[in-house]
Amino acid sequence: MPERSTAVLDDRLVFTPDDVDLARSPLRGSLGADTFVLGAFNPGFTRLPSGNLLMMVRVAEALCEPVVAGLARAIRWTADGYVLDGWPLADIDMADPRQFELKGKRHRVLGLTSLSWLLPVELDADGRRIVDVHYDRAIAPVADYQHYGVEDARISRIDGRYWMTTCSVSAERHSTTMHVSGNGLDWRLEGIVLDHQNKDMLLYEGRVDGAYWALTRPLGECWFLYPPGSEHLPGPSINLARSPDGLHWRPHEAPGIRPRAGTATAAKVGGGTPPVLTDRGWLTLWHGVAPQETVGVYRTFWALFDAAEPWRLIHLDDTVPVLEANPALTARFADRLYLPSSVVFSTGMVDAGDDWLVASGEADLACRLTRIPKARFA
């Protein structure tokens, strides 16, 4: 077990499922079924031109009656509205509350128990008070590659323009999609930028020699061995990509962050916060997963990439976490937890003077905001 980090100030939940008004959900009007908020979590995070903060909250909306007449139901977007599909219980495995898996298929085939959309939540400049919840600017599925939702926004501000990556989910593909905005509130969908199962795409908050850079995390069904005695483990890793315009991306050859044997990242690694430029280099927070039961234990770690060569990793801390899950924060929601309270998933970081304000999803349930002194990363 890694040593627990204590360099944390003002650590609290700032938005929870109780704060979502489902009467204003984009699913209202066409979906003929009662729903509830399974989670309001994993917020994209940035500062608006006004100085206020924006969280782009993932709202996972689930059916109050997921099983009816022996059928497990899933919500699906269509151009004519939201519909319900049913799958015989005998044909599926429902061990994971977030999804169900069809049995007997040649490939792993999943259905979701909720459909996600994005809700812009505006906070004051210190992140202590909700100023507005912009239901009129919610981002919901609008294309066939988003049949099952839009998930996990990450926001970068580059040369005064906002770039937001999201995961779009459908039977066609599980892709990374891009939105752009001039003011952080009104977004335009630019379409797919990375294809199947490439998650956690984080644009560097600034260009290097005119080029855009990003961290990515491709997934797959198989991995190849490292040589005997290697400190690294096969599996998903954080890679890099470069673009001339922010829309067309080419993978970079140099590896990024890889899971290491004997650490709290041994099960999996993934991107967290878009890299921000400091006097030491590009600082990013990322998550490492240690094996435990089905989901594992998610912790937040940090890394630095070189300022002039943004593909070159110059510091990696995968031993002492910056953040860990805090069960005390979700104790009042104990009866609504559908995952173990061992998950913190950091998704954005904003400059707050001597501190960083870090936004995270806590237990896939609520939005957490943590103030961390910059000295923690010295």
Task: Give an account of the 3D structure.
The protein is mostly beta strands. It has a single domain, classed as Glycosyl hydrolase domain, family 43 (Tachylectin-2, Chain A, 5 Propeller), CATH 2.115.10. It is 0% helix and 48% strand. Strands 20, 21, 22, 23, 24 and 25 form a 6-stranded antiparallel sheet that branches. The model has no long low-confidence stretch (mean pLDDT 94). Keywords: Glycosyltransferase, Hydrolase, Transferase. InterPro entries: Glyco_hydro_beta-prop_sf, Mannoside_phosphorylase. Belongs to the glycosyl hydrolase 130 family. GO terms for molecular function: glycosyltransferase activity; hydrolase activity.
The CATH architecture can be given as 5 Propeller
Overall form = globular
CATH uppermost class:
Mainly Beta
Number of strands: 28
Largest sheet data: 6 strands, antiparallel
CATH topology: Tachylectin-2, Chain A
Whole-number total of structural domains: 1
Give the helix/strand class.
mainly beta
- Provide the gyration radius in Å: 20 Å
What percent strand?
over 45%
Low-confidence stretches: none
- Average predicted confidence as pLDDT: 94
Helical content (DSSP H or I, runs of 4+): under 10%
Straight-line distance between termini: 23 Å
CATH superfamily: Glycosyl hydrolase domain, family 43
| Distinct helical segment count | 0
| Helix-strand topology string | EEEEEEEEEEEEEEEEEEEEEEEEEEEE
